[in-house]
Write a structure and sequence with these properties.
Distance between the termini: 28 Å
Strand content: under 5%
Order of helices and strands: HHHH
Number of strands: 0
Structural class: mainly alpha
Length: 82
């Protein structure tokens, strides 16, 4: 069953989303739906791992990883998908 959802987004984000969806021959609704499904899949995959794996996750520290790597990843993902 489908249901309607209203989102408030920055005009620039909407413009990029429209351009992207036009290039990909898909709707913005499909893009948002697929993104939200991917979040759920990631969450479910984390729960499927063995308990020992979940306990060890994050224990190993990276050598030369920048402290703002999350910002870099977010920026690259936004460029990739918009």
């Amino acid at each position: 069953m489908q249901s309607k959802l209203t989102l408030l987004l920055d005009k620039e984000v909407i413009t990029h989303a429209k351009e992207y969806s036009k290039k990909k021959h898909t709707s913005i609704s499909s893009i948002v739906e697929n993104y939200l499904k991917s979040l759920d899949n990631k969450r479910m995959n984390n729960h499927k791992s063995a308990p020992i794996t979940r306990q060890l996750k994050g224990m190993v520290k990276g050598g030369n990883i920048s402290s703002d790597y999350k910002d870099i990843i977010a920026e690259r993902l936004s460029k990739k998908y918009l």
